[in-house]
Design goal:
The protein is α/β, with parallel strands linked by helices. Helices cover 61% and strands 8% of the residues. Strand 10, helix 22 and strand 11 form a beta-alpha-beta unit.
Length: 664
């Protein structure tokens, strides 16, 4: 029998939650708020910010608001509304904690401050080997160029051979800038612990986005450093006259010409600069003693500036822009896994669970035993086919039972590998995860088994475990075995490849006081997303049995009270000496007494029959024959009304009779 709903305590049912999406895609702002609410829930377990009753009220209001809004999908609407209300309540009590929902201020200015600092640092270097001359083979300048070329090679290798990277440096830098404690360490203070948990969740959800932010910062800093070097050369050229040339002990003229020709090839190819010959380089050697004019020195200075722009500044700015665009794009698509136990529990508190139990019984007597158990809960008899609705909670959770024929399960076969190469695509589609049950199990009974949330398997003997149908392993459903004996079946489970719990059938289904053990075992085997609904159904199950027991005790107490108050007046002459000496009067009095007892007994039998019928209806049982034909002994106490004179005469007569008896 379904538990009646209590007025004012029923939250709305979110119809959109039935679709059960796996992931939720949010923008960065919404994702931050959602993960901050999760961090608060997981850290504030003692209810310092929000108590359990306040959280329940908040979730009920959020569910009601999301249902009225009619947003699709309802899961996203509910989570948004719940997060908004939770953070609003926290903001009134701990504003600094609620402020974490906004991005940190340092993230906005560090993208400008750090590249600007690198540029100023590069510009402060007012010399490259010598403040009054530009060495074509300057180690600082060549180091900057070759370091960036090596970085481009690494980026190309990472692009052609992508591998997951931990991004440890970028994530550690962000944690340090945010002041987050070390990973996994609790301080015992609310804000630092919430901050640490929030950053852990946020960096997990947006690791790629944060890595792209780090790349953007790195590229901008490298571009700023190169721009600072170029600025140092320009500033030096404004206040002094450069001598441009080269010198080397290990390299000869030909090697220097080949090296500089390769180095300045992009500048000569892409910009309006003329090439240079070996004779030009020979004349520009510092040890040659030749005079290099200002125009030629200016030409080489501009070529070096153009080289820095082409090799470092422009590519780094392009890479920074690309990383920033990708990061901004990913910021609008942060994925939240709803299969996480936290979200499964949150949604289960407002989402009605629809639990279907498949019963696979090899013995008819075992199936009948369970059916009697189910029938004591249901409002209607089992249908001819399809699931049987047994119970509903006050929040809309439903419990259904589906009887599965053993022969249908034995006929079910696991999809086999394709034998020919021509059908590889069809085989792949059949074997893909999450394939519809209609593709895996063509039979209707088999599809019904695939649609169950948990399977109750009732083997008739331990040998049935060894002959486990392959479909039970292929389904991957939670399995609960109800066996005549536990140990023989439990010893055979490892060899069958099944992950199941074994219970003794007589311990969970022989009496209605024990059936709560069965429901407890069912709830423990359910997936996490159905745990909360299963707990509500278990509560409804227990309340149903308690109400039935209380009603039964009320019927018995009423019958006993009515029997104790039952009376029937006996008609006839009052007691006296005349009855002691007149047999006819004694017989008339006895007949009247028997008639009164029969009338009382008949009324008690009618009331008892009505009570038994009500008990049988409540427990969905048949009236046992021994109760239907139960005999009653003579449980009556007779009270005879007498007047004062008759009482005195009767007392005197009784005293005389007692005295005579003593004398005798």
């Amino acid at each position: 029998m379904a538990a009646p709903a209590r007025s004012g305590a029923v939250p709305p049912r979110l119809s959109g939650l039935q679709s059960e999406p796996i992931h939720l895609t949010l923008d960065a702002s919404a994702a931050r708020r959602l993960l901050l609410a999760r961090a608060i829930d997981e850290v504030d377990v003692q209810g310092k910010l929000l108590g359990p009753a306040e959280r329940d009220q908040l979730e009920r209001e959020a569910a009601q608001a999301s249902r009225q809004a009619g947003a699709e999908p309802a899961i996203e609407a509910f989570l948004h509304e719940r997060t908004r209300r939770l953070l609003a309540a926290v903001e009134n009590r701990h504003p600094r904690l609620a402020a974490l929902q906004e991005p940190q201020a340092w993230r906005r200015w560090i993208l400008w401050v750090l590249p600007l600092a690198a540029c100023l640092l590069g510009a402060a270097l007012d010399r490259i080997d010598n403040p009054q001359r530009v060495n074509m083979l300057s180690p600082p300048l060549l180091g900057v160029l070759f370091w960036n070329l090596a970085a481009y090679v690494l980026l190309l290798v990472a692009f052609l051979w992508p591998r997951p990277a931990p991004h440890t440096v970028a994530l550690t830098l962000q944690r340090w800038l945010a002041g987050v404690p070390a990973h996994g360490r609790r301080t015992g203070r609310l804000r630092p612990d919430v901050l640490a948990r929030f950053h852990q969740l946020w960096l997990q959800a947006s690791a790629t986005q944060q890595a792209l932010w780090g790349k953007t910062l790195l590229h901008l800093t490298a571009a700023g450093w190169a721009a600072g070097l170029a600025l140092a050369i320009v500033i030096g050229g404004l206040v002094r006259q450069y001598r441009v040339g080269w010198e080397s002990t290990l390299l000869d003229l030909g090697q220097v010409h080949a090296f500089l020709g390769l180095l300045f090839a992009p500048v000569v190819a892409l910009l309006p600069f003329d090439g240079f010959s070996a004779a030009d380089l020979q004349r520009m050697a510092f040890g040659a003693g030749a005079v290099v004019g200002v125009d030629e020195a200016r030409r080489w200075v501009w070529m070096y500036l153009a080289l820095l722009g082409l090799v470092v500044v422009a590519p780094r700015l392009l890479l920074a822009g690309w990383a920033a665009w990708r990061g901004r794009r990913l910021g609008h698509a942060v994925r939240i896994d709803l299969r996480d136990p936290y979200f499964a529990q949150v949604l289960a508190r407002v989402r009605p669970a629809r639990i279907t139990i498949g019963v696979l019984a090899h013995d008819g007597a075992q199936r009948e035993l369970l059916q009697r158990l189910w029938w004591q809960l249901a409002d209607q008899p089992p249908p001819a086919e399809g699931p049987w609705a047994l119970l509903a909670s006050d929040k809309g959770d439903t419990l259904r039972v589906l009887d599965i024929a053993p022969d249908a399960v034995l006929r079910a076969a696991v999809p086999a590998e394709p034998e020919t190469t021509g059908g590889w695509l069809q085989g792949l589609l059949r074997r893909r995860p999450g394939a519809p049950a209609s593709q895996q199990f063509p039979d209707a009974a088999q599809r019904g088994l695939a649609a169950t949330d948990l399977v109750l398997w009732l083997p008739a003997r331990p040998a049935d475990i060894d002959a486990c149908p392959p479909v039970l392993r292929a389904l991957g459903k939670p399995l609960l075995v109800l066996a005549p004996e536990v140990l023989p079946c439990q010893d055979r489970l490892p060899g069958s490849g099944l992950d199941a719990r074994v219970l003794r059938l007589g311990d969970v289904a022989s009496h209605w006081l024990q059936d709560g053990l069965l429901m407890r075992a069912v709830v423990d085997r359910l997936p996490s997303r159905q745990q909360a609904g299963g707990e509500r159904l278990l509560t409804a199950w227990t309340e149903h049995n308690e109400r039935r027991f209380a009603r039964s005790m009320q019927l018995l107490a009423r019958l006993l009270a009515q029997a104790a108050r039952e009376s029937q007046e006996v008609t006839g002459a009052p007691a006296g000496l005349r009855q002691l000496v007149n047999p006819a009067q004694r017989e008339a009095t006895q007949r009247a007494r028997n008639a009164a007892a029969a009338a009382v007994l008949e009324r008690l039998r009618q009331r008892e029959a009505g009570m038994l019928q009500e008990l049988v209806r409540m427990h969905r049982l048949q009236l046992p024959p021994q109760l239907a034909t139960a005999s009653h002994q003579d449980p009556f106490v007779l009270q005879r009304p007498v007047d004062t004179r008759q009482a005195g005469v009767a007392g005197a007569g009784s005293g005389a009779a007692m005295g005579a008896g003593i004398d005798l």
